[in-house]
Known about the structure:
By secondary structure, this protein is an all-beta fold. It is built from 1 helix and 41 strands.
Amino acid sequence: MLSLPLAGEAIGQVARFERFSYRGWAREPVRVGPKAYRNPILAGYYPDPSVLRVATRYYLVNSSFAHYPGLPVFTSSDLVHWTQIGNAIDRPGQVDLAGRAVSEGLFAPDISYHAGTFFIANTCVECGGNFVMTARDPAGPWSDPIWLPFEGIDPSIYWEGDRAYIVNNRAPDEPARYDGHRAIWLQELDWRSGKMVGPATQIVNGGVNLAERPVWIEGPHLLRRDGWYYLIAAEGGTSDNHSQVVFRSRTLRGPYEPFAGNPILTQRDLASDRTNPVTSAGHAKFVQTPAGDWWATFLATRPYAGDRYATGRETFLLPVTWKDGWPTILPHGTPIPLVLPRPALAMASDATAQPAGDLSYVDEFGGEQLDSAWIGVRIPPMPFHRLTGGALELRSGARLGDRGGTPAFLGRRLQHQRATIATTLTFQPTRDGARAGLAAVQSDTSNLFFGIISQGGARAVALYTRNRAETETLVARAPVEDDGAVTLTVEFASGTLRFSYRIGVGPNRTFKQEVDGTLLTTARAGGFVGTVIGPYTYTPSAVRQ
């Protein structure tokens, strides 16, 4: 994300953040040896992974919904340690996210490669529909979208020789029999002209067994092996009933028969009271190593209690086994292993700690542009941030939760159930209602703010929460007499939050303990994302984004 001059800047409207620190602790106190890896391979809100190998490098892209920059792109040499190299959506004009709720926008992407070019197929829900974009370098820049004229979601590209085929979720070729009745369709894409050609063929109606009313068949991918075409897809909806299923056919357009052993991945058949549960597993894509081994990336969640998690849907990795011409990711009734042997690939030379384990980092804002992991909500029509003198400066945008604008908010994904996040802030509000501090955002109506406010012409530290509501609730407030910098700290302990602050170099002061953090869970907020936390500022009547 580039650092640009602030638009409409006025004295007193700028909040200055001098550092941002994150420290998270692994949920499971397990030892991971040098020949093992830990799941998830991408912790926090990194859902709908699509993986690709080109020569000896692997690439992966995730959905991003209404966050911007969007469609994060990663690379790896060992399938375990991943480095973000960019975002496919990184400039205004590529897509229009104006007015979109946080869980609308860019759904599940697919990444593929052909003739020296990388392709991403994707859907912008309520903002244009299906599209393909290209890049010679996966780090970018990526092209503007080439919009495609078919309905549905989750397009992916299957390459056969020099021909490309789109496979995606669409409405069935009959009136829907029930809510969630969808189908998988195949149609050729003229990849040179960016146009769909030839007939569209429905290759799966409903799912594995239409008589059992399967729901939300989606996230399809095609591959060919030993003379068979294999279609893998998610079924059951991206929650506790999520699963991965497989079909095969001797011909590209079918008929496709389902595997008698479906699903090939699910956690819905396990006891809900098991220790350290992983749930909602599905939406997988296969990748083969040069040695011929098969692996699958997929999404799953890690609740801390019941169905509660604030970290969103995360990216996991498991081996794929083939038997009698059918693939399996995990036998029925088997919990997803959190530690298992690494792929038979040389460990990345720049390998660092996996994010699912203990992790800490500090951003001093000393570079010329922000790290590519920083994201906001929707695309600002004008810049609201800049990096200067080792600080991140924000100018007021829209009020947090106002879907008609873009808030001056930049955050990082919450990656652990136990985590401590802190920032040091200098802010001199110029009018009542002005605020700056840390915001934790799960949706437009489920979020919180902790920081400095102006009330009656005086500064105060305040905590506001919004729990599936259009209006916020004041939880606590305390006057701040000193005009200097304030360090704000938020501690996550599963479903409980703790807030503290420090003025200048003074002692740390507990502000509020035992705050209910379930408002930041997907179960409470709804939607498809995870909690994003970071600097935010808002001044009433300031220049609006």
